[in-house]
Amino acid sequence: MTALTEYTRTSAGRRERKKATTRAILAEKAIELCLQRGYSSVTVSDIADAAGVSRRTFSNYFANKAECLASAAQSNSDVIIAESSGFTAYSEASSITAVQRMLRGAPERFWIVCTELAELMQDEPELEAYLRAGDLANVERAIEPIAIELGVSPENLTLRVAIGAIANCIHTCILHWVKHNRDGEIADLLTLITDHVALIDLSWLDQLRSRT
Amino acid sequence: MTALTEYTRTSAGRRERKKATTRAILAEKAIELCLQRGYSSVTVSDIADAAGVSRRTFSNYFANKAECLASAAQSNSDVIIAESSGFTAYSEASSITAVQRMLRGAPERFWIVCTELAELMQDEPELEAYLRAGDLANVERAIEPIAIELGVSPENLTLRVAIGAIANCIHTCILHWVKHNRDGEIADLLTLITDHVALIDLSWLDQLRSRT
DNA sequence: GCGCAATCTTGCGCAGTGTGCAATCTCGCG
DNA sequence: CGCGAGATTGCACACTGCGCAAGATTGCGC
Q1: A88-102, B21-35, B58-72, range with the lowest pLDDT
Q2: At what angle do helices A125-150 and A108-121 cross, to 10 degrees?
Q3: Among A185, B55, B115, B176, which one is most buried in terms of CB atoms within 10 A?
């Protein structure tokens, strides 16, 4: 119930925290209702009601339903992105190893939410679009710390292509999984992802690193 | 003016053709108006009016404004995807070479439309979402012929990851270009893309091929 | 505790949207 | 020519996104 809410433990002012909480609750209720009744038969008012706020307030937090769910995806990804700042901590290993370590470090809950969202997006083009865009936003947020660690600009195109390829790979694997192997163990999904991430050549990323 | 319309020269029944034309005109007018006034200040009625049909008819063709623009992107990509069926024609070369050849084979007009759309999507998250999703649809359409040529299933995950990485790379490069080098020559954009595509390791794709 | 200012929430109104439905129009085909 | 499939349209209605202003809540200095 408060699974996503957990991720929003900031020690800011009470006001900030309350906002973050409402936001998280809205996103959470949105997932809950959509999984339950199907995306298109859930209205913004429904979500707002479930979260105990007005429709207007919903709009203060999210531009629309899809963005709300995308935000859930984003909170969910925070846990991974946070870890990515330890990217070069394993400087002896290759980038690919670091990525795999990151993926394996994510809690099971993370992958569950991923598959839930993937399930939802399957027959809702609008949602798929927004979740993809959310992915992009995640890439954007992940790039900054990594770029710093590697000592290159966040605008570095090579870096962006690399991170984008990884994110895309993960996304593709999850979709594939939901489509073909929905009932398998999460551990197998993880294997699927790490195996395929390994296919991506990150040697040029390692080169970026060695130049520092 | 009729640039996109050109792409829809099918020799089907007149009825089919007329539908395809209306569709193309709608998409075209949509781009035109959006480039001119900005995405958010163009209404569906505006587009419909410009195309000479009713608002209701617009909805018969597209679910919404964003999807309409995404369709323009799709028509635009048809020219590339059509070429991808000659993928293994150069069996002596590596996959990466084939991809580069494909990219260089696209007419300048293709890249112009790409950059126009990229420009539009820059500050419109909704549009960005839909165009990204359109990319996915393109990947979906491109995979089929390639899979056949390689003799693997279109569901083959390795293949999907590879094609996805390429599409993502192209997209990322175009966005980067629009953001940092808007006024440069299209030829330079092409160089940027082929250079970065080359960074993606497609050797495992070549292996898929050699197994046939 | 008190009061003020900043901030959040809410209801209202309105233009725009997505879609089912039924009437009408168009066009291909016999 | 006339029929029938299919395309277009207007209408209605629920939902949406958002500006606005009133009201509630919160943080802070005293």
Answers
A1: A88-102
A2: 140
A3: B176
